[in-house]
Amino acid sequence: MKFPYSFPLTRAFCLYLGQLALLLGETFTSIFAGRIRWRLVLHQIVEIGFGSQAVVIITGIFTGAVFTAQIFFQFNALNMSTAVGPVVSIAMFRELGPVLTGLMVAGRVGAAMSAEIGTMKVTEQIDALRALAVNPVDYLVVPRAVAMMISMPLLVGECIFFSLSASYFVATTILNVNSVFFLQHMWSYTHNKDMVMATTKGFVFALIVVFVGCQQGLTTSNGAVGVGRSTTEAVVISSLSILMVNFFLTMALNIIFPAGGHY
Amino acid sequence: MSGLQDNLIEVRDLRQKFGQQDILRGVNLDIPKGETLVLLGQSGGGKSVFLRHLIGLIRPLSGSIKIEGEEIAHLSERELEPVRRKIGMLFQDGALFDSLTVFDNVAFPLRERGERNEKVIREKVARALELVSLQGQENKMPVNLSGGMRKRAALARAIITDPSCILYDEPTAGLDPIVSDTINRLIRRLQSQLQVTSIVVTHDMISTNHIADRVALLREGRIHFNGSLEKLHSSTDPVIRDFIEGRSHEID
If you ran DSSP here, which 8-state letter would residue B31 be given? Predict the structure, then answer.
């Protein structure tokens, strides 16, 4: 036995990445070939995008609020309370907005995708699709992938908008930060590149959630127990991947869109 | 049988293995156009696995499967689609899409093949549901149907596009004798009126006696018997006798 096959975990990891890459390739081939069922895409946008709003908004509001409070407690001691706005804004745009949205969507949508497709797999519905000459990737994965790629950047934007609104509210009404300074500083330190970073990350996390969720669903076996396992794995794998990929994305995107500076 | 060119399906030396277990050990079988072949065999003997090979749901380990002369054993999923359009399949538990109503399930193959005229779809679905005696159940979800109704709805879905060949995986298993008889009659009618080729996997001898033009017995991964119904019943082979008479050799 040669490397990497002598390490079962390495082998399993490589195999899994290979399967994900194949699914990704097949899905994008279908998308570019125009095999998109728009009715199903709209249905998925409602399920994924519209349905996730409450979760994402609540996450945004309370993260923004608590982050503002903590930053204020530290900064106020240094007489820098008006710097709370820019710190919260940049943190939300560059990191917390996309990551928290990604994690919430992974928990809500990734789990649902994996459970639904997994149940279809174990009850022979996927085979029935194939027997009816319908490609399961075209029918199940493509609409979810397109819907996620559209919904996720919007959800990230929504999360950030509500977190900054909550931040403004907490800072100005509860913590008595001057609202003009707060807004002026937040505005001058937040740039378009931060927004590009947020949407780019949202897009990449959408891909992680949708492909991990669908891949887990499509490879489900062993009945109800298997569906349970796939769902758990989908959430765990996509959440951890989001956190890990986020670090590398930050480092890579910081080269293209360096942080800092204001005008 | 009248010449090789009249065979709809030709299977040669088909082998399959799951893990260490040999499921099919070299199956050879020809199915002429318009014939109803009943494939008998014990539960877990590889009958359903064999059936799934015929529509490309499982790739063979080795061997050849020809549908209308076209080798399908090594076709990709996309290349298999035209072949699958010619074949309908009834799954053991129906495999209805549980997010769709009975109507949408039966209409599914039509819509997927580009039929947009809702009036035509409604007419065809009504006709298919009438054939399987499921009128008035259009708006129910599969979860609200009994096992027999699910199977009949699935049969309606399998026949709605008028396939030239239908594969039945245990069509009468778990059904009451009256519904079983409806299904048996339907299989016969599809064969006599539309010259549909049918391959029926079952271990129901009543059903076999009713529908079979020819019977094949799969045993230990090979075709143990292949012949007419009369030949099956007059056989003195102890394996066949045991199967027909439902005898096991286990000691109480």
Answer: E
